[in-house]
């Protein structure tokens, strides 16, 4: 007889009953959500039976189970409540983030600094994405006037300008090489350089401008973290970017961040949540006359609504986005204009979801062929997406053409999203192994793709 017999996990059994989930259904959902985090699992009903009997998986899996049960029941369920965490892991269990941080800028700087500490950041990488209440979309409030004089100020307009230029450079790095490239450098810059500036006195108008740039940097770091496969961490940066945008009175960055959160929600298999976040992004734009910004958020809401099977509303959003595109007076730069190629990529996804295959292919071809020269990562994703849709239509020769173009770009990228696209492309090409071109592209991709991340039972 074992000296430490396992006890049946009654907590998990009760939660499964409340969620009306079978063991097989839970296993499938765990596998799917883990895959969205970049972790390949192969659980089945027998795995869940072992958990019910008292065995415990890795802490990451327990958090995935908690998130699935939270979505299913509509109430917050912590990983500790599932009975799946070992005692030491339960002691370190990640608490739910506070809905209203007491000092968002301090929290942001502290998180960025932790993200650069090798001994501490490993815990950040295990955060699981959580579907929670949609953040308030009300108009941001500018930072309070601290009543400083020019003589007392230590931070000036030149410091803000420099930070803005650096933000643009980090954004350019992301869309060229992927979010995992130099992500740590961005966290370091935010934690050290920006943290130092925020700690010094500044005139009110300079302070507001600095906080706005800080929000933009947090937005970039959130997107880069998601593209590095760190979805739970990315979600925390997104939320802090929203709060920084509010303090900086920056409704533009707030709308862009909510839109980015909607994109992430779709990738994390939460379409209803993605629609709600896209709604909030459109609300955040308000009466802003910037056509490109409006197109940017509307086409994402169209995509989310298409995935959520709200087809009529999706068509309305897509039409409104098309009418808005190109009508902007905001200026130049990566945060000023929505490129026609970017719009074509997103609208192509919408059209494909709506069943308009030929217009979708036309849009995706435009996206793949007209990306700017420096947008290597975005171009590669466009090529892979087009190849996948072409394979769906049996257009294997053309799909192989874009598959080869993707394979040419892929080695230079450090993008988890690109890796997932590569795996999906390989899986689809495997159905056409008898086609010489498909087999050739499949062989090329097989030599380039890293092995998938796995977790133990």
UniProtKB/TrEMBL annotation:
Q: Which domain of life is it from?
A: Bacteria
What is this protein's record name?
Transcriptional regulator
């Amino acid at each position: 007889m074992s000296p430490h017999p396992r006890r049946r996990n009654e907590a998990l059994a009760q939660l499964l009953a409340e969620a009306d989930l079978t063991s097989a259904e839970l296993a499938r959902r765990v596998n799917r959500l883990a895959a969205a985090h970049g972790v390949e699992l192969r659980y089945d009903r027998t795995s869940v039976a072992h958990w019910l009997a008292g065995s415990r998986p890795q802490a990451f899996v327990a958090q995935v189970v908690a998130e699935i049960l939270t979505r299913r029941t509509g109430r917050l369920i912590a990983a500790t409540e599932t009975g799946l965490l070992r005692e030491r892991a339960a002691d370190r269990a990640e608490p739910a983030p506070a809905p209203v941080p007491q000092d968002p800028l301090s929290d942001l700087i502290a998180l960025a600094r932790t993200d650069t500490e090798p001994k501490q950041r490993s815990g950040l990488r295990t955060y699981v994405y959580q579907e929670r209440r949609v953040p308030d979309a009300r108009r941001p409030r500018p930072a309070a006037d601290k009543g400083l004089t020019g003589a007392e100020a230590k931070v000036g307009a030149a410091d803000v300008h420099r930070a803005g230029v650096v933000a643009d450079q980090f954004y350019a790095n992301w869309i060229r090489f992927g979010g995992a490239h130099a992500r740590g450098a961005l966290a370091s810059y935010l934690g050290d350089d920006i943290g130092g500036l925020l700690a010094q006195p500044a005139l009110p108008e300079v302070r507001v401008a600095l906080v706005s740039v800080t929000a933009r940097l947090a937005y970039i770091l959130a997107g880069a973290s998601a593209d590095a496969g760190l979805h739970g961490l990315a979600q925390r940066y997104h939320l802090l970017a929203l709060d920084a945008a509010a303090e900086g009175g920056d409704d533009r960055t707030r709308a862009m961040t909510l839109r980015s959160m909607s994109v992430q929600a779709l990738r994390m298999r939460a379409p209803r949540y993605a629609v709600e976040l896209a709604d909030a992004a459109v609300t955040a734009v308000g009466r802003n006359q910037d056509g490109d910004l409006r197109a940017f958020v509307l086409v994402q809401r169209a995509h989310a609504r298409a995935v959520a099977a709200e087809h009529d509303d999706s068509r309305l959003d897509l039409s409104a986005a098309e009418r808005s595109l190109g009508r902007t007076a905001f200026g130049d730069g990566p945060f000023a204009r929505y490129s026609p190629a970017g719009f074509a990529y997103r609208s192509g996804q919408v059209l494909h979801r709506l069943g308009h295959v030929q217009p979708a292919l036309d849009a995706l071809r435009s996206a793949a062929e007209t990306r700017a020269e420096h947008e290597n990562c975005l171009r590669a994703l466009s090529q892979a997406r087009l190849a996948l849709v072409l394979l769906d239509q049996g257009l294997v020769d053309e799909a192989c053409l874009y598959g080869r173009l993707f394979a040419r770009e892929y080695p230079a990228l450090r993008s988890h999203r690109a890796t997932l696209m590569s795996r999906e492309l390989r899986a689809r090409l495997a159905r056409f192994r008898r086609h010489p071109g498909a087999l050739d592209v499949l062989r090329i991709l097989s030599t380039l793709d890293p092995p998938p991340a796995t977790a133990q039972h």
